[in-house]
Amino acid sequence: MNIYDQISHYKPFNIQEEKDQRNILSFLDTYENAFFRENEIAHMTASAWVVNQDFSKVLMAYHRIYDSWSWLGGHCDGDEDCLRVALKEVKEESGIEHVKALSEEIFSLEVLSVDSHYRKGIYVPTHMHLNVTYLLQADERDELIIKEDENASVAWFSLDEALERSTEKWFVDNIYSKLNQKLRMMYEID
């Protein structure tokens, strides 16, 4: 099933996902270059909520641009297989080799605002990330490697500690908390 159909068939978890699903589909209907960051209005990205083997920890990176602990992921850059993008980004950003999707189904949908910033000396205007999130599982015994140009550190945190470590309040309140809630419901975690 292509990503458009996956997003169309996704059952939103809450009102945020319901509205964001509608907006992502509308954008994909309107723009042919929605999977390329050259579209400076918005573009598709893929993220991952990466848990360890017993679902007690989540993997996060200290993101240089956002100056906060955050999930892993990145731009699709023309690749419409968002799960492949999420897996690739997790490996690149953390050095983790043993990572797999717990499901090929979308775990979460988000439209995320990105403030203007400089990346490698080039100005990037304010834009939106049309994001698809997947639930991945990795072996926490794998060596973690920092991707110097993107993050300052990579670490495993308990589900609650992951929320405490992030300084992006909106993400904590609206995204990371939701991801933990869904994880706990799906896998009956206390």
Describe this structure in words.
The chain has 190 residues and is of the alpha+beta class. The protein has one domain: Alpha-Beta Complex (Nucleoside Triphosphate Pyrophosphohydrolase), CATH 3.90.79.10. It has five helices and ten strands. The chain has helices spanning 3-9, 15-30, 82-94, 159-165, 169-187; strands spanning 42-51, 57-63, 68-70, 72-75, 99-101, 108-114, 117-119, 122-124, 127-138, 151-158. Strands 1, 2, 3, 4, 5, 6, 9 and 10 form an eight-stranded mixed beta sheet that branches. Strands 7-8 form a two-stranded antiparallel ribbon. A hairpin with a 4-residue loop joins strand 2 (57-63) and strand 3 (68-70). Helix 4 (159-165) packs antiparallel against helix 5. The chain is globular.
What is the overall number of helices?
5
Low-confidence stretches: none
Corresponding CATH architecture: Alpha-Beta Complex
Domain module count: 1
Number of strands: 10
Task: Using brief descriptors, characterize the structure shown.
single chain; 190 residues; alpha+beta; Nucleoside Triphosphate Pyrophosphohydrolase; two-stranded antiparallel ribbon; 32% strand
Per-chain topology:
Elements: H1 3-9, H2 15-30, E1 42-51, E2 57-63, E3 68-70, E4 72-75, H3 82-94, E5 99-101, E6 108-114, E7 117-119, E8 122-124, E9 127-138, E10 151-158, H4 159-165, H5 169-187
Parallel strand pairs: 1-9
Antiparallel strand pairs: 1-2, 1-4, 2-3, 2-10, 5-9, 6-9, 7-8
Helix pairs in contact: 4-5
Short description:
By secondary structure, the chain is α+β, with helices and mostly antiparallel strands. The protein is built from 5 helices and 10 strands, in the order H-H-E-E-E-E-H-E-E-E-E-E-E-H-H. It is 33% helix and 32% strand.
